[in-house]
Amino acid sequence: MEKPYRITINLSIIDDLGVNLYSNVPAVISEVVANAWDADAESVNIRMDKTARSIVIEDDGLGMSEKDINEKYLQVGYKKRESDAGTITDKGRHVMGRKGIGKLSLFAIAETIRIESAQSGAKKAGLIMILKDIKDKAKKKEDYYPNPIPDPGVGLERGTRITLTDLKTKITDNTVSHLRKRLARRFSVIGSQHDFNVSIDDNPIGIRDRDYFKKIGYLWTIGAEEPYRPLAVNAKKFGNFEDTVQVNGQEHKVKGWIGAFDKQENIDEGNNSISIFAWGKVIQEDLLPKIKASGIYSKYLIGEIEADFLDSDSLDDIVTSDRQSLKENDLRYECLLQWFRDVIKKVGTSWLKWTGETAADEAQNIPAIKEWFGLLNADEQEFANKLFKKIGPAVKDKNNASREIYKHAIIAFERLRLKNTLSSIDKLQEDNSIEELFRQSFTGIDDLEAVTYHEITKGRLEVITTFEKIADNEKEKVIQKYIFDHLWLLDASWASDLVSDKRMEKTIDNAFGTITKGLTQEEKRGRIDIKYRNVAGQHIIIELKKYNARVKEGALLEQLTKYHNALDKCLREQFQRDNPDIEVVAVMGKKPTGPSNQQQLIDKLKTINARMLTYDELISQTQREYAEYLEANAKTKKIVKIIDELGGVA
Questions:
Q1: Number of domains forming the structure of the chain
Q2: Residues 372 and 303 in one domain
Q3: Same domain, 105 and 181
Q4: Which domain holds residue 100?
Q5: What is the arrangement of strands in the sheet containing 110-118, beginning at the earlier edge strand?
Q6: What gap in Å lies between CA 41 and CA 60, rounded to an integer?
Q7: Which among 154, 299, 540, 580 could disulfide-bond with 126, CB atoms 3.0 to 4.6 Å apart, if both were Cys?
Q8: Both 481 and 533 in a single domain?
Q9: Ordered alpha helix ranges (H), 518-551
Q10: H or E segment at 117?
């Protein structure tokens, strides 16, 4: 049998430059697509058969003759750019291939490779290569002769068809969709504008298959804005950078774009990268890690930079063997990296500024935050906008935790507002604004309430709220329920958290039982209750009279004097209190009857350090004195409700 084709290769080359050099289907298919570009193909179609587990790549390029296959395709290390064909094709394309090892990549994903090619004016050519047979020959250090395909067996009239069978990986729907994206992202020359159309199962791949332009919120172009800016249909902000890189005093042009995703969930695996292209093909998958950018913004970046000067024909090859990364000790790489570092620093500055500018508007898209914003006055709203600008980057970064950040931001803002220190927001730095803010903040709603109420407890607000709704026939019962344990109703300085002597209170209450026995039936009918309380060294007697009882002025003075004298005696004899500070308070429904006017009665009561007030006066006095706190509480309730709507605070 005639053996028209021959390949000489050793086992280590097969493994190092073929089987082990490439790790995935897109990387391998990219080498075939690059060869089609170099062959001036206008159309490349990739067919993937899940059932047969095969991949067919067919192009309409120049094709290969039997001689071309032997002298170029099967010659490992054939340097296309140093051949007579040169570096520019008949269509004016700069060739992508350089090392001549791409054909070995096919064995990374398939055991069997079938090649068919038809060239104008030449006999059709074809062959089949089987990896197992090649390895067997290589072990014996013998040449390998691929099985030829006779002319009639070559099923095309122009171009080249490569069929991969006995695949090492399973083809799924995900394989197909992933290949579309990766090819779209590995080549910048796919599309009618470059007269190079690539399809999968007859479905053309386009720049939109890169599947990220519509997800970009900010876009920076390098040099010309076209065609990138029109593709970023949802971008809110745009920037532009200089397109010149200096190497040894020489200027080299670059072009491309850098984008920032608008949302974290739009960042697919592998998308957070900035690729470097030369002559339309990726030569560095991701340059971003090389500059160790640490800002939040760097997690959102994606981009493509075309730098053809890196792959100059007259200089040493800067690209590694797998054609997916650059040699880092090359001066061209170092200069590009410095330019890139400066660009990314500017990107970070713009990102922080733009994110802050849109943060307030985005925050108010949340109904609860919009409601809170409406509670603020104009000056406070200005500070709130500043705060949202400061925390904008952190909100974007935390994504699912953004509502939690908003909750704590509102709590912190309320703390600063009540302390009249909202101006401290101006001092926050974007990079650590959340940490600074939360150091000044609280851990929960109770802290916010403590600031808002000051020394007023929830119990006071409950009482005040109850007083707002009290009816005449309920006043006796309600006042009796609260007054003895909420002395602040009688005097704001008598706070319930001040220390009291419970043993003394019990003893004196028992002593007052003796006084009660001496009351007339009329006096007993007019009374509801009487209690002694001791608060911070002050001794207080509180008597509640019935709402409808009518008390005479003289009887009231006599009765309160008895209470005062009895308590004074008890304190001196049983508790050794000299000159005790005693106050007697009578709460009644009606003013006492008698000859004295209001002021005269007040003066008479003062002689025994006593006072009186009606139920209505007590209620109105409480509401008046705590009106400011009631207003604060109403606002705080709204704030608490807003925070609850954001999910609650632990």
A1: 4
A2: no
A3: yes
A4: 11-201
A5: 147-148, 125-130, 110-118, 159-167, 54-59, 43-49, 197-200, 203-204
A6: 5
A7: 154
A8: yes
A9: 521-526
A10: strand 110-118
